[in-house]
Amino acid sequence: MSGIRKIDEFDYLGLLKGLVEDGEAFAKTTPRYAVKWPALVIHTETSDGQLETAKEIDPDVYILFDPAGFPTAADRDKAAAAIINNFRDKALAQQDLRAVDYKGPDLWVMEGKKFRAEYAPDPAEKNKYQPNEEARTAPRQCLAVTEDIEFPVQWGTFIVEAGGAIATRVSDLAAIQTALTDIAQNIESLEAQNLSPEALKETSRALIRQTLYKEDGTTVFDIYGMKPGFLEKNYDPFVPQQRAQKTGKPPEPA
């Protein structure tokens, strides 16, 4: 993969506008294999080396696998063990459970609360989970990507190749739209101040960062990437009737 375009603040603003205005809704339909991250046990010792206390901390996260990339239980167990071993020391050293995180080809980590809200255990097979009613009726807003890009996300940066997509929960769109409207209005006010072109650009950039980024450079909103083919294999176009079945409300007009 070459020629990756690194997304700056103005590009990121454009991505979010495109996602809100031109994105399409898709719902989860594909089962997942998942392994719960084991609890971390922190020991303290007395001055003579004897065990003093043992505190168990549950990060409450799951490692999720794309069945296409990890088709067998042995493959998944091996990958999970490697990830857990690598990140356990990091999490303990930093004393920060947010260090328990991973994103990579065909696998990623998901907070336990979010995972359990969208998946239910499949009684027929160990570590297999089916999308529940919430996952099937709470769609993602997705936008196709036409070039290789590296863009900021909540855990750092992520590369999406041409043919992939960016996505967010439809339930987050209202907050994203509010942020975009605030930025547009504030930039319009800046333009009325007769700033030099360079001053206007850099002040606008700072405004975008203040609204859409955290202090560490990660993002406020959970906008994430999907590699080429992932959306098509794992999601179906969202049909308003799916929501009607859950809420009892009539379908939205096409």
What do you see in this structure?
The chain is α+β, with helices and mostly antiparallel strands. The chain has eight helices and 16 strands. The chain has helices at residues 9-22, 73-94, 112-118, 133-137, 173-191, 197-212, 230-234, 240-247, and strands at 5-6, 24-28, 32-36, 40-45, 51-57, 61-65, 103-104, 107-111, 119-121, 128-131, 140-144, 149-153, 156-160, 165-169, 224-226, 235-237. It has a six-stranded antiparallel beta sheet with strand order 7-8-6-3-10-9. Strands 15-14-11-2-16 form a five-stranded antiparallel beta sheet. Strands 1-12-13 form a three-stranded mixed beta sheet, with no helix packed on it. Helix 1 packs across helix 5 and helix 5 (173-191) packs antiparallel against helix 6. The two termini are 39 Å apart. Residues 241-254 have low confidence and may be disordered.
Short synopsis of the structure:
The radius of gyration is 21 Å and the shape is globular. The longest helix has 22 residues, at 73-94.
Topology:
Layout lengths: L4 E2 L2 H14 L1 E5 L3 E5 L3 E6 L5 E7 L3 E5 L7 H22 L8 E2 L2 E5 H7 E3 L6 E4 L1 H5 L2 E5 L4 E5 L2 E5 L4 E5 L3 H19 L5 H16 L11 E3 L3 H5 E3 L2 H8 L7
Parallel strand pairs: 1-12
Antiparallel strand pairs: 2-11, 2-16, 3-6, 3-10, 4-5, 6-8, 7-8, 9-10, 11-14, 12-13, 14-15
Helix pairs in contact: 1-5, 5-6
